[in-house]
Amino acid sequence: xxxxxxxxxxxxxxxxAVLTLLSKxxxxxxxxxxxxxxxxxxxxxxxxxxxxxxxVGDEVLFESSVIVEYLDEVYGTSLHPSDALSxxxxxxxxxxxxxxxxxxxxxxxxxxxxGFIEQREALRNKLDRLxxxxxxxxxxxxxxxxxxxxxxxxxxxxxxxxxEVSPGLLDPEHHPxxxxxSNKLLTQPIVSASTVAEIKQLYTGMxxxxxxxLSTLMT
Length: 219
Ligand SMILES: N[C@@H](CCC(=O)N[C@@H](CS)C(=O)NCC(=O)O)C(=O)O
What we know:
Layout: E1 4-7, H1 12-23, E2 29-32, H2 40-45, E3 53-56, E4 59-62, H3 64-74, H4 84-109, H5 113-133, H6 147-165, H7 176-186, H8 199-210
């Protein structure tokens, strides 16, 4: 029975689940909904009204972190470190990655320049902290991809789009290890298949539609 993922084209949390499915070579189905006008069946199915939702037969899983951990546990070799403490630390950083995604969203929706600057500073502080945690290897735990790497990939993809509009958040001088890691993450062959092909246009379209301060910097 193929796992069935309910998605929204722009959702970075769904993308984490898709990256896990692709990375593990799991055969799956994906169904897109319009979150602005969700179908009645989705409101019934999703306890928090959010995507991703993963249907496994008649059972329903929600919350991306739970979905990702379930897929990792059930299919193939785990993408977590085997040592319990390292695994728990990786999970802590995966939560940190979820917070980074919230920062990115908050950055986009700030109506005024001052709020935008504050959010950019908050995000920069997170990036500084992450830079300190990295070792300079290709991936978070060394030369092999782990679940924590997959979890940060949607964040770096969106950061790249934002950096093109408002440069300076991620620069090689201040964040050499982050830039290296981000390049490694975004050039994984599975990344292009983890979203719809028009992700960049959709994302920049969403930034414009939100009409925040960031949209005034777009050409
Ligand atoms: N903590 C959730 C966050 C998921 C989330 O915020 N999904 C957004 C789309 S990217 C959503 O469904 N929003 C609809 C809503 O909040 O009503 C997870 O990790 O799965």
